[in-house]
Amino acid sequence: MNFILRAYSFVFLLPPTLLLFAMGSFAYLEGRKELSIDMLPWAEADVRMWLVLTGGFGLLSMVLALLKKARVLYAIYAVLAFVLAVYAVFLSRHRFDGESDFYWGLAFVAGALGAMLGAMVHARK
């Protein structure tokens, strides 16, 4: 069961981590000074920097965790991802198009909670 939780954690967190890093990197490459993503807690002028830093930290922590070094960094990143998911669904300015979209947001928060638990298990091992 612990292996399944750990594997789920990596599989769930890898796509959003790559997306954060890619979005921030492309914003820098494109030369955008401001980027507006209303689901994130950062000011428009700082979004691209935070996207790159968060995605980079996530990728680094995943690689180190897979190499069985500094596993606690991965657990910290998983907690950060869960907090960002909760913020995006419940606290941000974003408005969902309908009930179905909100349920998808809730499913993402539940998935992030499972990934966080898997990362905690991985960090304890």
In short:
With 125 residues, the protein is mainly α.
Question: Would you count the extended β strands for me?
Answer: 0
- In percent, how much strand structure appears in the residues? under 5%
Averaging pLDDT over every residue, what do you get?
A: 91
Cα shape? flat
Estimated structural class: mainly alpha
Rg, please?
A: 15 Å
Q: In which range does the helix fraction lie?
A: over 70%
Task: Please count the helical segments.
Answer: 4
Q: Which terms would index this structure?
A:
125 residues, mainly alpha, 4 helices, 0% strand, flat
Architecture overview:
- This protein is mostly helical and 125 residues long.
- The chain has one domain.
- Helix content is 77%, strand content 0%.
- It is flat.
- The relative contact order is 0.19.
